[in-house]
Structure formats: structure tokens, C-alpha cells
Amino acid sequence: MENAVGRDEVRIAAVFYRQAGASQEEAGKIVSALGLGPDVAQSLTECPVIGGAQGIAGLPGRTVLSGDFFDK
To answer: 48 near 22, Cβ under 8 Å?
Structure first.
């Protein structure tokens, strides 16, 4: 996924967990790599869910650091 999108895995995980919004270009690359439709691309660019300052200890960081995100 990193190679397809051109961003690091923490950034991509943050988009998937809705803690960051993707640019139009990033969203297009993500849905293309996963074989998803334009409706999904649009949702990836929407404002993220704000729940609190989690930083690297948040879900994207923890998931990537534990190795669970891209191994499934």
C-alpha cells in the first residue's frame, strides 16, 4: 500500500481509521489499489473523526507498531 499511495503506513492507517482525511490524489490511489469505487474515495477525503489527541499512541500508530494492520 505504501508504494501504491506514496505515503508511509502510519499516514495510510490514519486515513483508514478516520483520524486524517486523504487528498483526492491519495484517495484515488487507495481505491485503485484496493479495487474500490469512487464513493469510497470520496469518503476518504471527508473530515476526520475527532475524538481526542492520541498521537503515535493512537490507533494508527499502535496498529502499525504491532504489525497487525498490513499482515491481515
So the answer is: no
Using DSSP, state whether 15 is helix, strand or coil.
helix
Please tell me the distance from the alpha carbon of residue 66 to that of residue 22, in angstroms, as a whole number.
23
CA torsion, points 38, 60, 51, 49, in degrees to nearest 10?
-10
Task: State yes or no: pLDDT of 50 exceeds 90.
Answer: no
- Rounded to two decimals, what is the model's pTM? 0.65
Establish if 72 belongs to a structural domain.
Answer: no
- How many structural domains are present in the chain? 1
> pLDDT tens digits, residue range 8-38?
988 998 898 888 899 999 999 999 999 999 8
d(CA 72, CA 60): 15
Does some domain include residue 70? no
